[in-house]
Amino acid sequence: MRSRFAAIVVLAAAVALGTSGCGLLAPQATTIHYDASDGVSGTVGDVELHNALIVANEEGTAGNLVVSLVNTGTSAHNVEITWGDDGKASVTVDAGETITLSAPQSGDAETEDVLLDPLPAKPGDTTDVFFQYGNETGATLQVPILTGDLAEYSTLVPTPKAETTEPEATTEPETTSTPEPTETSTPTE
């Protein structure tokens, strides 16, 4: 009976070791970096680029670049962003600051929009967007172009710029003076 009990203990230990042994050698999924959303990420020197994506307008002709820039360094950096043949923008990110372009900011912070107009590719494609500052080696990200069809992107669609028209010159109606009636005397007989 003792040998039977010992055999059961040995068998249970072997099963436990066999089933948990894979976990000792397999890489842990939580340590593998991946982009958890639709955007792509990269790094330029001290500046981390998170979740870069473009949300196109309904016509697919223009789009907002949405990206978070995180400056992990101790000094401010002026990040140059280029795309297509001649698209260009720049944004300054202070030390320790996070800026999200073309998306509502928390608090009173202003949103800086980066509009790609014309859009170098159609929704559903990707387009190269280059990020660089100072003497740091830049990073080219293949940024996906999405539409505002999903609720989470609907507020990021670029809005058409209001056309500014000069008010038409209005002329004051001409006033003509009418002579005031004068008293006329009637002859008395």
Task: Explain what this protein looks like in three dimensions.
- This protein has a domain of 121 residues: Immunoglobulin-like (Sandwich).
- It is built from one helix and nine strands; from the N terminus they run αβββββββββ.
- Strands 1, 2, 3, 4, 5, 6, 7, 8 and 9 form a nine-stranded mixed β-sheet that branches.
- It starts with a helix and ends in a 42-residue tail after the last strand.
- The relative contact order is 0.17.
Give a summary of the structure in a few sentences:
The protein is α+β, with helices and mostly antiparallel strands and 189 residues long. Helices cover 13% and strands 32% of the residues. Strands 1, 2, 3, 4, 5, 6, 7, 8 and 9 form a 9-stranded mixed β-sheet that branches.
Secondary structure layout plus pairing:
Blueprint: H1 2-25, E1 40-44, E2 47-56, E3 63-71, E4 77-83, E5 87-93, E6 98-101, E7 115-116, E8 126-132, E9 139-147
Parallel strand pairs: 2-9
Antiparallel strand pairs: 1-2, 2-3, 3-6, 3-7, 4-5, 4-8, 8-9
The CATH superfamily of the domain at 36-156 turns out to be PCu(A)C copper chaperone
Could you name the CATH topology of the domain at 36-156?
Immunoglobulin-like
Strand percentage lies at: 25-35%
Task: Report the order of strands and helices.
Answer: HEEEEEEEEE
DSSP E strands, number: 9
The CATH architecture assignment of the domain at 36-156 turns out to be Sandwich
Largest sheet properties = 9 strands, mixed
